User: What shape does this take?
Amino acid sequence: MSFLSKLRERLTKSSSRISAGLDEVVSEARPDIPPAPAPAPLAAPARAMAEPSPPAAPPAAPAAPPAARPGLMGRLFGREPGREAAPPEPRRELDDAMLEDLEDMLIAADLGTDTALRVTANIAEGRMGRRISAPELKQALADEIERIMSAVARPLPLYPKKPQVVLVVGVNGSGKTTTIGKLASQFRAAGKSVVIAAGDTFRAAAVEQLQVWGQRAGVPVMVAPQGSDPASLAWDAMARAEAEGADLLMIDTAGRLQNRADLMEELAKIVRVIRKKDPSAPHNTLLVLDATTGQNALSQVETFRKLADVSGLVMTKLDGTARGGVLVALADRFGLPIHAIGVGEQIDDLDAFDAREFAQALVGL
Ligand SMILES: Nc1nc2c(ncn2[C@@H]2O[C@H](COP(=O)(O)OP(=O)(O)OP(=O)(O)O)[C@@H](O)[C@H]2O)c(=O)[nH]1
Assistant: This one.
């Protein structure tokens, strides 16, 4: 299955929320024409169906209208005679009330207040007073989201420098280990040699999980005794990657935000140590974020930018969450490159971020 098909299929919680929200925004319109009175209920009770037929002849069925010959337009466009034209699409005049509904819906879909306001204002431009249908509104929103996301959709840059050092940061459980595993196997498949360092030395489970991913990807995973200094592991991993001429060194790190000062010192020490071997390292510092945390992802970016020199984002778990809109808020607020998104737990469930595909899938187009 292509990644686009997966994205469409698995982003459904977010897209159906937004798609249904937009349908609702348009249907909030007061109808111009009062609705026709409801037809009178059928006189015969339902149980009459089971009663024996009365002896009298049933009333004659109304005569079928004479077969109408289609008009010129009907014949031109192949419309069959007698077939009713589709009911007109509901439309709503774009006014302040509709913009307010749209803004509320976007906030509820995790785009955040500032981004929702900006997106709404841009959609309003040149459309005020026009009667808009839900598909038109969806297209306008998708175009606006694509515009915001195009500025940040950038695959992980690869440099000729060997080894290219990729430091991976993020809170526990955000998907760092899984992302490293998926990226490592994709780089391997592209013919690159990779070394992984299991830098969260305090969590035995995290180290084991990384070893499993390493085995799957055919990539060596360097580990250190539990609780030992991650910076000394990073030094050894750097030495091995240099000795083997590896293309990439990916370093996993701890994500304990409970003690920020410790974590900051730990990350700073890793960076100091690898810079002794290569002053230009790390070449990328990837922050991994979990989409299911919604607006919390924004404060994680703020925190980690203080702890490390974050160069790009990876957003995981876009499958199974209705909070995918937070990616738009992140792009709009920070402008950091979004390198990849994850939509599942398998190796090929991570791919480069494509602004257009994402915008269309998110809006349900
Ligand atoms: N559904 C889904 N699950 C994911 C995705 N990425 C990671 N996961 C799952 O999220 C859980 C946490 O992922 P990890 O990779 O262990 O996260 P971590 O940041 O390394 O966390 P620690 O090991 O606790 O430091 C695991 O069960 C993963 O299988 C994704 O894109 N979609």
In short: The first helix runs from residue 3 to 10. Strands lie at 91-93, 131-133, 164-169, 194-197, 221-222, 248-252, 284-290, 312-316, 338-342, 350-352.
